[in-house]
Amino acid sequence: MPPRTLPIRVAPVPGEALESWLGAIARRLETPWGHLLAALEPTPADPPGLVRENLTACLHTREAAAIAHATGIWQAAVEASTLGHYDGHLITVDRSTGRVRSTWKSVRSRFCPQCLRVSNGRWQLSWRLPWIFTCQVHSCLLVDVCPECAMFQRVMPWWLRAHEIPDLCRCSRNIELDGEKRRCLGDLAYAAMPYLARQHPIMLAQCRLSGLLSRSVIDCGIYQAMPTSTLDFLRDVRLLSARMLSMAKLDYIAESLEMRGDSHIREHSAAYGSNLDRWSTPGAFAASAPALVTGLGIMLALDVIGRESVEDAASRLRPLIERAKATGRELTPTLLRCGGPTATMDAVHIRAFEPSFGVLDRMRYGTASCLPRYPRTLTPDSLRSIPTLFWREWSFRLTVGRGTLSVIRPVLSIMLVCHGHQTTVPSAARRLSLSMTDRRFAYMVAELRPHRLWPNILATMMRLADYLRENPSPIDYQRRRLLDYRDLLPAQQWNAIYDNAYHGPGWRNRVGDIARSWLFERISMLPRSAAPFKTTTQYRDAVRAEMIAMFTPALIDALNSAGLQYLSHNNVIGEPLTWAPPFSLINDLELPRPDLNSISVTQVHQLAQDPLMTTAAIARNLAVSADVVRYLLEQFPLVRPTTRRRIRNDPAETRLTKADLLRMYNREGMTLTAIAAEVGVGREAVGDLARKYGIPIRHYYRIGPDILDWLYEEHVVKQRTLTAIAQDVGVSLSALSRAARKYGILVCRDPRKRRQSSQRA
Asked: pTM of this prediction?
């Protein structure tokens, strides 16, 4: 049966806390607190009765109905007097246990003495919220402690005592007097309180915060791009307030908030000291910070959060960080991370530290994105989509200067691994089966950083990392790095593929070695130096690439089939032989090199069909790198040409007879270098052929006095390098340098010094 109604009706004050209202009823009835709760208890009492902790946190439905029946007010009004009124909006209440869960953990209640005097001891529910620090009715700061014992009013889990008649204007804390504990009973209604003007910055900050918390979603300030809930917003405010207070002193806060000379700042500076370190952690700030300190911290936080963009907010936070560092404090971005802030607040913290980041930290924190984020742990799943050697077609677009693919590809892969992950360069390299030190990586990246499109290169890495996180590669590169490649393209399989009519029987083994290493690099995405097999003939990179560029469509198709057969034999099912991310990810970015689609494959084929055109010559004709031409010929191979194109490593004797070599070397006086360039072979090959023919080799080239004036004009006056002059003359650089020094011509790599020499002459 429901409880009987109370003989006296006392209406709750608007915004009053449940325990305050029921305490006022108990005092009016002159009834101990515990007796009143027993009278209001529903029958049967299941769950347990009202004599329990955290009464104002929430009520069960039957409890609220019993109180409403006994007091004669609406049940909704009863429920609105508990913290459950804010459940899901400002706090979270666990209704099974009656406990309040909030990032602003606090067991105290501030109070306004003037409100207590006027209302005869009625306590507002909002005073229990730690982010409420002013009374808007009386325009003052709330009071934190009793004027007698200087202790705060503890309201959780217990406030009023069961055996006493509540006196809500008196302090409920125990003090020790003459060795005995007794109630303090200090008069809270007459505690001193600092009054503020209506337009005081602290009053305005409270109004601004309350206005924001009245919304269901925070979508202004830094949260415009990514709106957040009020719960998450309060978490950000608490964290940022505490951290900014930990880095600032009161004088700086007053200056920053344009409150210099404020009387309240001066008065409390003596009490708190210039440092606010005791409230520098988010927990201590929420639980024990005085109202003034809470207000100052929230003002600082709102000043940052209210900015129009993450960059503006970071620029507001950065001077405070730099000021703290100047005092010797060690601050890192991770110091501000605790407390579970939103992604937007993380981005503000990271942007504030960005000027102090090196290249590696910029990649770890993803500063190229609109919302940088803290790095994650590098997991095997992160590595499965990243090859050891960066995708060739992507590497072409990111190559700067005269960098080669063999250098840039592993560097780009390490950059991709480091992007968004907490790892080091040696660790990332080791996970990719590479060997790379921090110093070597920094040296290679130093070639990229000066380029004007360096920010776009970082943006490319960021977009790739995000894409691979959401769309993993169809190829598990981590598994391919671990395969045993000793059985790749065995001799029997290669013999069935090789076409004698194209290369000739004498080239079977040499082309087989190159095809096997090419297929290894294509499948594993590892450098061919990591192959478990050794080639019988060593070729320079350019020569090897020239031979690969001459592979026919039939040969490439056969090698691809052999690669798929090898993968199937090793239980790699359902994966393509090769793959690369789509270029649509970076269509709007300007990169150092043009898109490969802008190069005419038809024109490449036309030039490549000329047997006298080398790959380097084709590249010069198209104003692209030789690596690009070779890649295009691999992707779009020519049908078998009628005449095989020259390869620089072909035997020199097939191109240079003894009579021709005697004529060019002895009669015409050409150098070995000039002859090699004329014939299209290496200088060493010409020297070896001269010894084979029995032709004496000049140990140095004599430069006569007749060309000294010309040499002086070219090197000193026209500022040409000796290297370029040596190529024109057809002599070695060392021979030209010796001659210049012999005849008193200043040899200097610095053009300014050569210019000074020319002016003196």
From this structure: 0.73
